[in-house]
Write a structure and sequence with these properties.
With about 450 residues, the chain is α/β, with parallel strands linked by helices. The chain contains 17 helices and 14 strands. Helix 17 links the parallel strand 13 and strand 14.
Length: about 450
Amino acid sequence: MNVCIVGTGYVGLVSAACFAEMGNNVVCVDVNPKVVETLRSGKVHIYEPGLEDMVRRNAAQGRLVFTTSLADGLEKARVVFITVGTPCREDGSCDLRFVHQVAREIGQHMKDPKIVVDKSTVPVGTADQVRAIVAEELAKRGMDIDFDVVSNPEFLKEGDAVNDFMKPDRVVLGTDNAESAEVMRSLYAPFARSREKLIVMGVRSAEMTKYAANCMLATKISFINEISNICEKVGADVRDVRLGIGSDHRIGYHFIYPGVGYGGSCFPKDVKALITTALESGHTPSLLQSVDAVNDAQKFTVARKIENYFADQGGVEGKTLALWGLAFKANTDDIREAPSLVTIRHLTERGMRVKAFDPVAGPNTRKALEGNDLVEIVDEQYAALEGANALAVVTEWNQFRKPDFDRIKATLSAPIVFDGRNLYSPEEMAASGFAYFSVGRQAKKA
C-alpha cells in the first residue's frame, strides 16, 4: 500500500518505519528541511531503541522516502496519516494548529480519493474539524473528491515504541465507513497475525479511548505515589504494599511503581487536555484534577528530601548534588515534563550546584538549561560524583541499577543517596554505610 505520513516525531517516524518494514511504500513528510536531510542521511533525530536501523534499512531498500513536500507525499498515497504535535496550551487545552494546517494542505493538494487518518492525540471532535477543513479547501478549488477522516490513536511507549507498533495489544479505529475500515484492516493485517486486533468504533469514541487509556495509567501512577507518601508518614513500606495490592488481578502490578511522578509528552498533556474537554462540556472531572495535582507535587519529592536533609547543615546553598538520570524515563532522550528538570530548577534556585549525567538525554538537557550556571552536564556516569555532597537518582536506566557502590562512597564527600526510583535496597544501603532516602519507605542511615 502507498502511505503518506505527515510528521516525523516519535509517532510519525516509528509508524513510517514499521509500515515500510512490512513492505508498504511510505513517504514521510516534515516541514523542517534539517530533519528531512538528517533522515535521508540514515540518522534519526530522536532516540528510540531499534528505530535508526529500521529507518536506514527501509530507506536503503526504497520503501521509505523523506520529503518536505506534502504534495509529493500525497501523489500516490491511499492513506494519509496526520502525526504532528498537539502541544498543551497554558490553559491546559490541546493546541490543534498543526493538525489544522496539515488538513488545510491536504485539501489544497489532494487529487484523488484519500483516507485521512488522525493518529495524533486529539480531543473529541477533531476528526469533524479536519473533515470540515479538507472539504472547505476542496470547495475553494472547485473539486469534488471523495475522502474520509478516521481516528486511529497510537498507544506507543517511548523507549519501546517499535516493539509496541510491531506487536500491538490492539488497533483502535474510529469510523462508520465500511470501506475505510477494510482498507485500514488490510494495512494493519501484518501486525495482527496471531489474532484479530482491530477494534472498530465511532470516531468520537476512538478519540476518547486514547485519552481514557492514558488518564487511567496516569491515575495508577498518582495513586501509588499518594500511597507512598502516606506510607512514609505511618511507617509502612510501599514495597510490601505494592506486592499486596498488585497480586489482585483486578489491580495488577503494571504502573504501580512509586517514584517522582510521570512526565514526557503524553500523560501530562493528555490529562490536562481531558480535564479541559470535560470542563468545556460542563462536567468537573474531580478525579483527573486530583491525578494532575498529585503528580505536580510528586515531582518535587527528591528536591524536598534533599532540602530537608541539608536543612541543619546550612541548607543546600553552596553544596553540590550529583544527579543520575535526566530523561523522563529510561530508553529515551525525551526531557519534556521530566521530573529531573523540576529537581534541578528547584535546587539551583536555592543555590545548589548540580552535576548531572544521562546516557542519552545530556544534549537535550544542556539546551533546556542553557544559561543556568549552577548546572553541569557531564558525559560519564561517575564523573558526576566528583566534588558532590550527595547523589540523587531520578531516571531508572539499567546502568544505574547495579552501580559500583564502593566507588560512589569513595567519590562523594559523604555517602548520601536519594533514590527517586527505589532502585536499591534500604537495608543493603544502610549496611554499606550509606544514608539512604527513597520513596514510600523509611529512611535508612548507617
